[in-house]
Amino acid sequence: MKPDKFTVVNSVRIIYPRLIISSAVVLCLMLTSIYLYASDMKGTIKIGGTGTALGSFKELGEAFKKIHPDVNIVILPSLGSGGGIMAVNEGALDIGLSSRPLKDAEIRQGAVSVEYARTPFVFATALKIEGTNFTLKDIAKIFSGETKNWPDGTPIRLVLRPESDMDTIILKGMSPEMDKSVRKSLSQEGMMVAATDQEGADTMEKVRGAIGTSTLAQIISEKRHLNTIRLSGVMPDMKNLADGSYKYYKTLFIVTGPKSGPVTKSFIEFINSKEGKAILTKTGHLPI
Questions:
Q1: Which domain holds residue 260?
Q2: DSSP for residue 130
Q3: Contact, 123 vs 167, CB < 8 A?
Q4: pTM of this prediction?
Q5: Which residues contact 108 (CB under 8 A, 6 or more apart)?
Q6: pLDDT per residue as tens digits for the range 146-195
């Protein structure tokens, strides 16, 4: 039976208030969500750890701050991976940056790590080395002291890292010859040993003929005046890292503790966003 005019009008009167109420509820929920989100986007994020990641995180922080101007991002000078992890567990940092996985003891204290990128691990020098090509055996001879000069005759000045540093661990793992040569170089008196990634890069820039280890991420993000060395004809660039032609890299981790707040989590989400990954790629990282 076709409804009369009265039935239709009353039905509209019943449905229309319900629509108003439902819309109002949805609007209130949206406004509440926006308010909470906006209130979360205030505060300070303290970041520290491995020096190789500091330059890129400065760029990430600046980009995040453009979106959330009320967030203050503080990046501390290099603490090393272990120092960053310890500071996170103690609540002194919101984010730790590490170039190694967590140890069992660090996990038991509450630390959680997520791999966010890889970057080529490189041999670098401030010398102009266009066309210079070394094999891993050539590098081993430099570390053992057997090779003392660059091809142009410039004396080689080796810049080492501490024995427990991740750079040294990677070097030793490259080959049995490298392991032997690195151990020999560390045992010699009078060698230049850089405590941090930044100190190592500074020394390589200032000391003529210096050679040492770094990462493509640090060189690009800090705009270092350093040249990377080909290994067996392969450049340590992003393309060759991605396709496996260049085999040596540092794995980088974001470390958080049990007290990480909403602002910190939002920043980590930004790092994993399209914009964040673009910044990482631009600064010599292969985002994970």
A1: 42-118+250-287
A2: T
A3: no
A4: 0.84
A5: none
A6: 999 998 899 999 999 999 999 999 999 999 999 999 999 999 999 999 99
